[in-house]
Amino acid sequence: MSYEERLGRDEIKHMASPEVGGMGMFPYEVTYDAPPGHTSRTEVVHATVALWTPHGRLLGSDRGEFGGELALASENYPAEQPKILYHANIEDLFLMNYGVLATTGYFHLSYDFGSVLLVTFSSDGAPEVNEIFKLPAGVRTSWVTTDDKVLVTTSQGTFAISSPTRIEKVRCKTRWWQII
After folding, report:
1. Mode of pairing for the β-strands spanning 83-87 and 49-53
2. Could you check whether the bond before residue 78 is cis, i.e. omega within 30 degrees of 0?
3. Phi and psi of 172, rounded to 5°?
4. What is the DSSP secondary-structure string of 62-105?
5. pLDDT in tens, the chain (180 residues)
6. What is the pTM of this model?
7. What is the 3-state secondary structure (H, E, C) of 24-73?
């Protein structure tokens, strides 16, 4: 998909500011398991990023130290709750020619880790999620370039993803915190 085509389809993606705590547009329930002898609890959460696909709407949430997940809402949403596909704080979602890339990140106290997930759909629409790259730190920002690469910025550097099998560190003179 060209850069121009992606710009033309901008309406398929919705994002919330990290300060908002969710868009309020796509609420869903998450059940937290409890230790033996305790009661599990269910909480309504809101997606921080949502991306339409032909197989349903992918919902990503990032609640910081309280977790996050990647979920798939069917055409019956909200009557039918989304299916949780992966547990991780989802920073962003990108529709690419080879599937959907999901960038993840968690940085709190001494923890700092992240990864890139690839979501693909089988011919019957069943989703498959694979972690394709482990990153040295959590994703702070990410975006698509005009030459169809996804750039991800972490505290340990910036990386360019050009395919589901190719990632390379980008060398630049400016540090990520100098451009934010």
Report:
1. unpaired
2. yes
3. -145, 160
4. --GGG--EEEEE-TTTTTSPPEEEEES-EEEEEEETTEEEEEEE
5. 554 565 455 457 777 755 555 567 788 898 888 888 888 889 898 899 999 888 989 999 998 888 899 999 998 888 899 999 999 999 999 999 999 999 999 877 778 889 999 999 999 999 999 999 999 999 998 999 989 999 999 988 899 999 999 999 988 766 656 655
6. 0.82
7. CCCEEEEEECCCCCCCCEEEEEECCEEEEECCEEEEECCCHHHCCEEEEE
